[in-house]
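Supplementary notes (optional reading)

For those who missed the lab, this is the record we used. Protein: Tyrosine specific protein phosphatases domain-containing protein. Length: 184 residues.
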Amino acid sequence: MPLPSHKLTICGIPDLSRHSSLGVSHVLSIIDTHEPRPEALDDYFEIDHLLLRFDDVVAEYPGFEACTPQHIEQVLAFGERVHAAPDSHVLIHCHAGVSRSTAAAAILMAQHAPGQEEEAFLKILDLRPHGWPNTRMVEFADQLLGRNGALLDGLVAYRRALLQAKPHLAEIIRNIGRGHELPA
């Protein structure tokens, strides 16, 4: 089954206002637990909007709210609504448009395209060329969709391709404490 044909935009909070006049029909917002609702969302009218709050961490850490399976169930329910709207334009944002939003985008693309998990992740290279999808989100989606590691394999393929194009990112990933996510 091919990847869905709906239009997909990924951004961070600072870029939200740039996209409000582009015919967006669905917005998925994933922001930190204590982040205020971005005022720029007021510029989006008559949209299907899901606002999730969890921090950009890949494990449980004191003082942070990590993603849960229930969050990903909500992402997948949102994906069902997107899939039911044939000419949809989906905007997905998190704080910086790097980790949670790119993970959610790949999950939504792969949700109705079993066997296309790697293609979904590699498409992120074109949509958001500096992303680093949140591993925890992908792990939960892989389990909930019954993909038996295919989403995680797609994530690894994406990271290899990204690091091949931008090897300097490996040091940045190590410096932010996520070196364990670097492919072997």
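If you only remember one thing from this example: The domain at 7-181 is CATH 3.90.190.10 (Protein-Tyrosine Phosphatase; Chain A).
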